[in-house]
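Structure, all two chains, one model.
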Amino acid sequence: MYDVTARNISGCGLSALMSEEGRRVSGEAIISSIALLHDRGNGMGGGFAAYGIYPERAEDYALHLMYYRPDSRDRTERILDDSFDVRLAEPIPTRPVEGVPAGPALWRYFVQPRPGRAGTQSKDDYVLSLVMRINSEGIGSYVFSSGKNMGAFKGLGYAEDVGRFYRLEEYEGYIWIAHGRFPTNTPGWWAGAHPFTLLDWAVVHNGEISSYGGNRRYLEMFGYRCTMQTDTEVVAYLLDLLIRRHGLPLEAATAALAAPFWHRIAAMDKDQQALMTAIRQVYAPALLNGPFAIVFAHAGGMVGLSDRIKLRPLVAARKDDFLFLASEEAAIRLMCPQPDLVWAPEAGEPVVGWVRGGSLEGVR
Amino acid sequence: MRERQTFTLREGRAHLPADNMHYRPLNELVHAAVARGATHLRVSGVNGQRYLADGLRGDLALEIEGVPGNDLAAFMDGPSVEVFGNAQDGIGNTMNSGLVVVHGSAGDVIGYGMRGGTILIRDHAGYRVGIHMKEYAGSRPTIVVGGRAGAFLGEYMAGGLIVVLGLGAGDRPLVGDFCGTGMHGGTIAVRGRLEEAHVSPHVRVSEATDEDRALLAPQLEAYAERFEVPLALLEDERYWMLRPASNRPYGNKYAI
């Protein structure tokens, strides 16, 4: 490979694919797609999220953990054993890959909340509270994935190297999202790589969330703790708050994140005007300011969204039952040389893909 | 990624297979072929390789099969580049002269700070086309978009000509929000329909006069010929001419 000593003027790279029929494909395609976007990153982080990868344990929460200190695992497992019925605990399978430096120990746990422990909370809220507790406990432990039948895999290095490190070609998923990172004003470290996840949510992002501070304080009022030192973390938690907990329809949530300009709202019909005004007023602290193109996924589908003036690139394509999203068309054509349709989504207009029969019920 | 690849060269015509190559060795090959006397280069199997034709000078022709990567033809001075496929972001950044033809759609930030030459896009173009294009003496850059263009078209435009034809646009707007914001030179022409809400207050809109139509005629002919579209289809329609309302739109920005 090339020694990248010259100034790299790129942004991050995103790539994603989804089968509406729920057909599962190996991680091979998404690894080569994100490899094509190699030069958009700088080796300071790469990662993937995949859905449908744990069908034999589909009802359990799959917790992926990073342990930074020798005693992190013991201390965390005490919390886990106390809170959950841990049905399987194992190291996450990896292989040595040149280009992926030594990092934290990586473990995964398939768990169910202990009966009676959740109290009046839903199981999801209970898991959420445990994730936030472990991540903010100061014991060098980070839960970087906590959904069912899905998982995030991330770390330092270029994305394609991180993908091989985690042996992702051995997994099969019906949604894959990937990210090659070029950190701008936050540290490049394992837990700070994308995707950011919570329960079923996973998000990858190219850009900068200038409103991070405001978003974070808003989220803290609802029990979320931002611990990963990266702006994108707030997007995962905002999706959880707006869609799972507040029950907003998808389009209302994306309108809160990438709110239409007031002059556009003024030109809408009366009902739409009232709706958008209410969303902007109620969810002003959820507005994401700054440049972004994001792809987020949940068990029932995948969504691409750019900021309202499209300061970061996003391309979409369809072929048969597959939906593709990426920072560059070439990254899609590597997975699918002849798409039926390729298009550039409008600023702030979500590209919404649903897995057949999929809905947001899975996340509520 | 293949690191090294060769090319064939016969009577000034070179063929460069780019399949799975990284952009850097590919561009080295292009420059090597030109140094050895190639004047017609066919680059096949292109997918995402950046910086093609950047800074190239002289009487050269490049045919690109596939989707070239970002920053195609940046700083280019003279060559003609024809893309058989869609193109990505950043075509013709600060291009000085020459021609880029895209048989498909193009991405965002096309012709940024362009100083001369022509870019013809058969279908649609993305956001921020022709930002801060400028003209000087005999140098007058031109961008023709066959379909529709996104927001910020001609932002801070200082010179040159942008033509938006709206073919295949359906009922969607032909230009996006903030068209011509900060525009202080040059001309944007939009065929057929234009929504006032999309046009910046820095812009004065008028219907094309005979003189304007004479200005547009060579560009329409070039588009019609290159993409095999009946010229009459382009001509038999109203055109809206967007010109700066002032040559100093921000003259009072900091004045009290």
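Residues 1-9 of chain A have pLDDT under 50 and may be disordered.
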